[in-house]
Amino acid sequence: MKQFWIILTTLTLFVVSATVCRAQRVSEVPLADPYILLDGDTYYAYGTGAKEGIEYYTSKDLQTWQRGGLALHKDNTSEEQWFWAPEVYLRNGRYYMYYSANEHLYVAVADSPRGPFKQVGGRMMKPLIGDEKCIDSSVFQDEDGRLYCFFVRFTDGNCIWVCELEADGITPKQGTLKHCFSVSAPWEEKLGRVNEGPFMVKHKGTYYLTYSGNDFRSHDYGVGYATSQSPMGPWTKFKYNPIVQRVDGLYGTGHHSFFTDKDGKMRIVFHAHYSVSEVYPRGMYIGTMKFSRGKMKILGQKLLYPNQNAQND
Prior knowledge:
Layout: E1 32-39, E2 42-48, E3 53-59, E4 64-73, E5 83-91, E6 94-101, E7 104-110, E8 118-120, H1 126-129, E9 134-141, E10 147-153, E11 159-165, E12 178-181, E13 195-203, E14 206-213, E15 222-228, E16 236-237, E17 254-260, E18 266-272, E19 283-292, E20 295-298, E21 307-309
Parallel strand pairs: 4-21
Antiparallel strand pairs: 1-2, 2-3, 3-4, 5-6, 6-7, 7-8, 9-10, 10-11, 11-12, 13-14, 14-15, 15-16, 17-18, 18-19, 19-20
């Protein structure tokens, strides 16, 4: 079993060869806002796409995927619509899913990464912000064991906030809510005013808070990052952002997460538009990252274009 919290504490430089399916230019896995969990010898991909909840796919090799159905069904929640941007972690033998529903944050728990996940408690951030809407939660555990939840509020367009969590990984700590950053560069507001989809990576003592900028419907939706010496900031955005944008000829490349593959190497998973003229259905793509002199970059032209097995697992 993998640990509950995926902690990317020490990341080394690497260059990885990846299969590139030149004949197949569109991913067959229709997940937006994707997240991948490696549990045992199986990869589980979760994402936005199903109206009835959160669906998942499984793979052994990151290339061929089988649809598994709904890991979270709306009947096991208090909401009816807009099930977005899930992340799943293993803790003490149980799986915790963080997700948005009807533009509020929730946590659901299951005994298997396949589900069925069932909502625990009510709106996650209600103790801090009441019934105000928020989306895109992402949980990070530091080396000292402290837990942080990064998420998006609509207080300045879409912007990123953070709070610390109690040891249960669910309850926000009073007095810890803090604004991280808002839109501050032209590429982040070509269509709308958007900083969203946060995900934290730690490398050699520096915190890299990665995020997506620009509206997801834009061809120029992309990924950037900001750095800090503390998970609570202050944050400085990388001056050469975005680091992912129109990669390998794709459009709308963003809302990503990172995971470690079976070889211990760091991967990025993100979604892209279906084509130059159609946003939907957005597809899942997998790339490789590296650090060079403290700077983070994607290895372009090294993407996996996942294909789908017609049979359910």
